[in-house]
């Protein structure tokens, strides 16, 4: 059963997906799948290449921006912002629980001028608490307004 959570009109976050869930994502308007999970993080998780092949087979774009336990970097935030900006439809971002995907989406939104308070509310409505990264969101938002 898919657990796609709405972050915005164009972005969904999800815990780990399997290839069989991609058709449902496509039916919901998803055109790009973003993998925020490194391969081999947990026994039994599908490798990114398996998800990528299944996505491309049904006409979805795929992008990997893995986030490890080391945390988030500026290049990852920029890559996420670019991927979101270049998508022609909805985006489904996934990781183990959906939290890293939501955090990276939140940081990307702030880096592009999104209001951290609005982003925080949207994440909360989807069931994610972004308070651990709120100072970074505020920093990115301040930089974007310079």
Brief write-up:
With 146 residues, the chain is an alpha/beta fold. The chain has helices at 22-27, 48-57, 74-86, 99-111, 116-125, 134-144, and strands at 5-6, 11-14, 30-35, 61-64, 90-94. The model has no long low-confidence stretch (mean pLDDT 96).
**Helix fraction bin:** 40-55%
What's the alpha carbon Rg, rounded to whole Å? 14 Å
How much of the sequence lies in strands comes to 5-15%
What sequence of helices (H) and strands (E) makes up the elements?
EEHEHEHEHHH
In order across it, which strands form the biggest sheet? 1-2-5-3-4
Q: Report mean pLDDT, rounded to a whole number.
A: 96
Which regions are unreliable across 5 or more consecutive residues at pLDDT < 50?
none
Oligomer: single chain
Write the SSE topology:
Layout: E1 5-6, E2 11-14, H1 22-27, E3 30-35, H2 48-57, E4 61-64, H3 74-86, E5 90-94, H4 99-111, H5 116-125, H6 134-144
Parallel strand pairs: 2-5, 3-4, 3-5
Antiparallel strand pairs: 1-2
Helix pairs in contact: 3-4, 4-5, 4-6
Task: Describe this protein's structure.
With 146 residues, the chain is α/β, with parallel strands linked by helices. The protein is 43% helix and 14% strand. The chain contains 6 helices and 5 strands. Strands 1-2-5-3-4 form a 5-stranded mixed beta sheet, with helices on both faces. A hairpin with a 4-residue loop joins strand 1 (5-6) and strand 2. Helix 3 (74-86) crosses helix 4 and helix 4 runs parallel beside helix 6 (134-144). The protein starts with a strand and ends with a helix. The model has no long low-confidence stretch (mean pLDDT 96).
